[in-house]
Amino acid sequence: MNIQFVEFDERFFLLSQKWLNNSEIKKLTMTPDTDENDRIAWYESLKHREDYYIKGILADDVPIGAVGIKHINRVSGTGEYWGYIGEKSYIGKGIGKEMMAAMYATAYALGLNRLTLKVADFNIRACRLYEKQGFVETAREDHVIVMEKILNV
Fold it and tell me: 55 Cβ partners below 8 Å, 6+ apart?
């Protein structure tokens, strides 16, 4: 399978609305309810933001999800990893590892030395992936696990 990380364009924006409104994916990604105006304002803000990096994910030219780093702080060298596969038939195919590798390369390019992430404690598949990738738990907030990884820059 050929995985590519491409511009998060309007096609991905529209698909992400569908993906993140799926009850299972919404729960796994802990996506809050938002109205259409808020989503449009967020999408329009992307071209001006330096604290947010986002890519669409293609698998054999099929849009399947999105990945990125938010809360980028170049002074402290930190950012928060996030990502999801919205097309369920692609879940469990090893794409998560490729997503993480792509964001490590991005973090290095941005001069970051630490990535954090938040994951629902019931999202066992994601928790296992993050642990295998070297993330360690640093806190728990309700049903959310906070993890971090120090990057070798």
Answer: 5, 6, 7, 8, 66, 67, 68, 102
For 4, 25, 70, 88, 92, the CA distances from 16, given in Å and listed in that order, are 17, 10, 17, 13, 19
The answer to whether the CB of 77 falls within 8 A of the CB of 150 is no
Question: Which residues, listed in sequence order, are joined to residue 141 by a DSSP beta bridge?
Answer: 144
Domains and CATH numbers, the chain: 3-150 (3.40.630.30)
pLDDT bucket at 153, cuts 50 / 70 / 90: low
Scan for tokens 């992400």, then name that residue: 16
Per-residue pLDDT, 85: 96
pTM above 0.70, yes or no: yes
Tokens of 87: 């097309």
- Residue 80 phi, psi dihedral angles, 5° rounding: -115, 115
The pLDDT value given to residue 34:
86
For the CA atoms of the chain, what is the radius of gyration? 15
The average confidence (pLDDT) of the chain is 95
